[in-house]
Amino acid sequence: MNRIYLDQGATTFPKPEEVYSAVKEGMEHSFNPNRGAYKSAQKTERKIEGGRRKLLQFFDARKDQRLIYSYSGTDGLNTLLYGLLDKEKRVIMGPFEHNAVYRPLKDLEQQGMELRIAEAGEEYEIDLLSFEEECRKGVDYGVFSYTSNVTGISLPIKKMAEILHRYGGKMIIDAAQAAGHQKISLKKEGIDYMASSGHKGLFGPMGTGIIILPEDSDIISFRRGGTGIHSESPEMPKELPFRLEAGTLNVPGIFGLIAGAKWLLNKGLDEIHGKEIVLTNRCIEAFEGEEGIEIYSIKNKSQIFSFNIKGKDSQSMASVLDQAYGIALRGGLHCAPLAHKTIDTFPEGVLRASFSVFTEEKDVDLLIQAIKDIIKIRK
């Protein structure tokens, strides 16, 4: 049985060959950046720093923004949220957030921080009128997923940032499901802070991620350790990136992440996003008028296909699709219970098929046929 992988929203596979080669290079030739005066360490440092510039270019960052290497999207979000927020802050979060955002914010709320949840609008977006009303009450930060990992819908971030800035707030974005799938412009969209995993759409290895933030940010680091500079001081350096990069970096992983970003720039994000929309539309159109399925994706807007087979548990159906058809996709809550409560699929969750530029139409057609078979048997 041929295996079909449609869980790209969790981790992309396969990666471009350039990524595998870069990780291999990192394993064979990596030395500690900022830790040695010898040529090999300096060569590694140059590549790491060149990668920062390439990734800032990739996200069209402002000139005053800097890039930090993190160990995952969750690590990056924890770094931002615990480094910026305290009991004096007023925060508005989205109604579709992953637990990487939701759990830290709920913890901070228990410590005294004011937390409000924005109201969902039509087609799984944000009700902008309600959002402005919330901002008018007072806000320091808005925290939102650029794209939901449950619905595949992207929010109108530029409009939301304009509203947020109007009332003195700053925008923090979880870009894990958007980075590498579509163009993101921090400059044009008014994004102040962003965190993303590296192993999803950016095609990097697991254990990689990035943070982008303003150079003059007052963020504090909850991680302490060696940085290679100011070693005589018991305090962390004030300069970025050193303030937030304690300890040895994941050099092989970062080499792979840089290679993934370069590959994506050469391929073109418009082409990639367009293909994912086409594949999702193909799934949606295949079940128009079919009563045995509930669909939670929206044509021409979703980059993933989320659905349930009526009367069937999503996780059980994920097992059936894997064992009987060789199709790997995700069932359940996808670590996003708040999103499922918002779209009324809690606690059962949904089935999610997520795609990459390497997903072929024939793979999607096999998924469609498998679902039709299961619906027919159910009847």
Descriptive report:
The protein is an alpha/beta fold. The chain has two domains: 117 residues, Aspartate Aminotransferase, domain 1 (Alpha-Beta Complex); 251 residues, Aspartate Aminotransferase, domain 2 (3-Layer(aba) Sandwich), CATH 3.40.640.10. It is built from twelve helices and twelve strands. The strands form three sheets. Strands 2-8-7-6-5-3-4 form a seven-stranded mixed beta sheet, sandwiched between helices. A three-stranded antiparallel beta sheet has the order 9-10-12. Strands 1-11 form a two-stranded parallel sheet. Helix 2 crosses helix 8, helix 3 packs parallel to helix 4 and helix 9 runs parallel beside helix 12. The chain is globular, with a radius of gyration of 21 Å. The model has no long low-confidence stretch (mean pLDDT 95).
Overall mean confidence score, pLDDT: 95
What share of the residues does DSSP label as strand, in percent? 5-15%
Question: What spatial form do the alpha-carbon principal axes imply?
Answer: globular
The end-to-end distance, rounded to whole angstroms, is 26 Å
The CATH topology of the largest domain is Aspartate Aminotransferase, domain 2
Low-confidence stretches: none
The profile of the biggest β sheet is: 7 strands, mixed
Q: How many helical elements?
A: 12
CATH class of the largest domain: Alpha Beta
User: How is the largest sheet built, in terms of strand order?
Assistant: 2-8-7-6-5-3-4
Order of helices and strands: EHHEHEHEHEHEHEEHHEEHEHEH
The domain tally reads 2
In helices, the fraction of residues equals: 25-40%
What is the architecture of the largest domain at the second tier of CATH?
A: 3-Layer(aba) Sandwich
Q: Cα-atom Rg, whole angstroms?
A: 21 Å
| Number of beta-strand segments | 12
